[in-house]
Amino acid sequence: MTCNFSIKTFDELTTVDLYHILKARSQVFVVEQNCPYQDMDELDFDCLHLIAHQNEALVGYCRIIPPEFNQLKSNLSVADPAIKSNHTSMPAIGRVLVLSEHRGDGLARQMMTQAIAHCRKKYGKKRPIIISAQTYLLSFYESLGFVPEGDYYLEDGIEHVKMVLYVIKKTKVKKESANTASTTTKILSFLLFIMAALFVLGLLYLMI
Asked: Is residue 155 a contact partner of residue 94, using CB atoms and an 8 Å limit?
């Protein structure tokens, strides 16, 4: 599925943008999930809003909560010990949705990939990202690298689990030094010389 993605602050959203965002959130999180809850909150003012458009129509959406406004915290129970304590303050991705008629085409993955890349660029490549995931989507978020943390819990009557995306450190492979390679070559050459000498001596012995 080919879509155009845009990321805007709340002040950059047009009234038309805001109308379609709130309509989509109401359609998915309130009507579809049969969950009457207060969707519009004070966080929207401080979030970045990622919108997926197809032919100028909103088909997907999520919001990025900056670290300083994110109340969802990780206890780093499954974190790499090398992660510094100041990374307990991390961005969050939430209100992830794809309209029903556009599901099954990989749009959710494209959108999350865009959101993760933006978090890495804006808040640092080594800073973890946290989400509150509905448990039926656990395998989807795990496929993106998120790790479940803690027990399941109810949020507005729906089962959720906290998940964190950590940065996987690349393991450096030490290259064999030139001296080591040279020494190995000399040893092999010496062994080959001994074997050749023994072979010649064997032939001479048989000829005598």
From this structure: no
Q: Which of 97, 62, 82 is nearest to 166 (CA)?
A: 82
Per-residue model confidence (pLDDT) at position 197:
77
DSSP for residue 34: T
Q: What are the phi and psi torsion angles at 94 (to 5°)?
A: -145, 180
In the predicted model, residues of the chain with pLDDT beneath 50 are 77-79, 84-86, 176
**In angstroms, rounded to a whole number, what is the distance separating the alpha carbons of residues 21 and 27?**
10
Neighbours of 139 (CB within 10 A): 8
Burial bucket for residue 98 (CB in 10 Å: 0-12, 13-18, 19+)? buried
DSSP classification of residue 167 = P
pLDDT of residue 82: 52
**Residue in this structure with the two tokens 């919108």, named with its chain if needed:** 51
Question: In sequence order, which residues have a C-beta less than 8 Å from that of residue 6 and are 6 or more positions away?
Answer: 50, 51, 53
| pLDDT for the residue 174 | 54
Is the CA virtual torsion 190, 192, 194, 200 positive or negative?
negative
Helix (H) or strand (E) holding 199: helix 178-207
pTM of the model: 0.76
Going by C-alpha positions, the residue among 75, 67, 88, 74 that lies closest to residue 132 is 74
Pairing of strands 158-165, 146-155: antiparallel
